[in-house]
Amino acid sequence: MAESQSTSRSGREEISHPIFASLYDHVPDERFLKPHRDYLTADLSGRILDLGAGTGALFPHVLEAVGGRSVTEYHAVEPDPHMRRRAERRAVDLDLAVDVRDGRAESLPYPDDAFDYVLASVVFCTIADPDAALDEVARVLKPGGEFRFLEHVHADGWRARAQDVLNPLWARTAGGCQLNRETTERFVGHDSFDVLEVERLSIGVFPAAPFVRGRLQRRRSE
């Protein structure tokens, strides 16, 4: 399955996966991810950022969770133009007020301390520089704000070894997705966050399994 790549005037490789974008909404992941996406969107308020929104999979969950309560602003960033167009259409279909922008997680187009919540749903597996992206999450979150995540991670034992072998082919065919990211360790070890909750989940289908979900809180200044 070939994917298109191009280079911008800045010399940085642009993210463009038209085939993967066209197939993404047909993957039957909502059956097992719905309760965990509901977890990400529970009791939201204030200003929200959907990081790497893809085709807008979180949009209906946000709409259901918010109900009649006030959300000051809902923003979403997605660097792939094919994914982004689908997200914009989904927002229109849902009559959901969301500001969908072209942006990379490693260089978010927002000021410091801009959001009460940052949500990431199966995003950090595809980000080219996940450490820089996590620094950006910390930067744009208000002190006391929450980073909520749902990610698939490196497995253990023979499954981990198999993921390492499969990863180059998987990344080429699945929009740059990496099977063997040590995402949990990266998140809980970051100096800007306190861990509120982290849970390993017995969901997903090998090789994109297991999953973790959790909540981190941006530390307040001393």
TrEMBL record:
The keyword Transferase applies. Keywords: Methyltransferase, Transferase. One of its GO terms (molecular function) is S-adenosylmethionine-dependent methyltransferase activity. Residues 49-148 form the Methyltransferase type domain. GO terms for biological process: methylation. Pfam families: Methyltransf_11. The keyword Methyltransferase applies. This is Class I SAM-dependent methyltransferase.
